[in-house]
Amino acid sequence: MQAAPITRTHRRTARRIRTALAAGLLTAVLALSGCGAADDSGGSSDQRALSADGQEKADPAAGKAAADAKELAAEKEGAAASGASKKPNPVTATHVIRTASLLVEVKSASRAAATARTVAQNAGGLVADESTEQVDDTHDSSHLVLRVPQDEYDSVLRELSGAGKLLSRSSTAKDVTGQVVDVESRIATQRASVARVRKLMERADKLVDVVTLEGELSSRQASLESLLAQQASLRDRTTMATITLDLTEPETAAEADEDPGFLDALSGGWHAFVTMLRWLGMAAGAAAPFLAAAAVLLVLWRLAARRWGRKAGQRPPAAG
Questions:
Q1: CB half-sphere exposure, 172, CA atoms < 13 A
Q2: Phi and psi angles of residue 107, each rounded to the nearest 5 degrees, phi first
Q3: Is residue 178 a contact partner of residue 234, using CB atoms and an 8 Å limit?
C-alpha cells in the first residue's frame, strides 16, 4: 500500500525536471535568436560550422572530404591574397643585364678573331657564335658573339676596342633586380602550394578527390617549372655579359696622289719590255707555219732549177 505514493512522487519530480529543462531550452533559443538578429553574418557562420561539425561527426568520410576541400579553397585564397598583397623584399644585390656591340677595323680579320677568342676564354667566358665571310672578293669580315663574366666585362671591352681602329661602339645596362626578386618570391610560393596539394593527395580516399587533386598538382607543377626556367634565364643573363664584335678589313685602293719614283719607273719599263717580248714571241709563233711553208717551197724550187740546168748543159750543139 506504500508503493503508490512513492510512484506519484517520482512522476511529479520527473515532470518538474522536464519543465525546467524545457524552460532552459526555450531561454537558450531566445538568446541565440537575439544574437542572430544582432549579427546575422556571425550567426550564419556559426550555424554553418555547427552543421559541418555535425556532418563530420555523423559521416567521418564526408567530413574528411569537406575538410580537404576547405583546406584547398583556403590555400587558393591564401595564395591569391599573398600574390595581391605581396611586397618586395629588401634588396641586397643588384642584378643587371649588360650588352655591348663593337665594330673594329683590323689588318687581318682572322687573326683579330683568334685574339678575341683568346681574350674571352682567358676571362672565363666563351664564344657563343662566330662567322667569317669575304666581302666583294677584296677583304674579309668576321662576326663574333662573346659571353664573358660580369666582373670581366669592362676589361674585355677595353681590350677588344683597342684591337684596331674603333669605328663604332654601343653598350646597354638593364636593371632587372625587381624582376629577379619577384620570380624568386613566386617560386617560393608555388613550391609551398605544390607541397600542400601533395599532402592533400596523401589524405584523399575518394577517386573523385584524387583526380581533382592530380589535375591541380599538374597545373601548379607546370607553373613552377615555367618560373624556374625564367629564373635560370635571368641568372644566365645577369651573370654573363654579351659582347657582339664585328671585325672588318680596310678596302684596298690605289694611291694616285703619290709621285712615281725611280723604282716605279724601272718597274714600269721592265713591264713594257717584257710585254714587247711577249708580243714578239706571239707574232713569231703566229708566223712560224707560214715561214716553214715558204722555206720548203724555196728548197723545192732550188732543186728543180738545178735539175733543169743540168739537162740543158748535156744537150748536143746543133749542126751548122
A1: 9
A2: -70, -40
A3: no
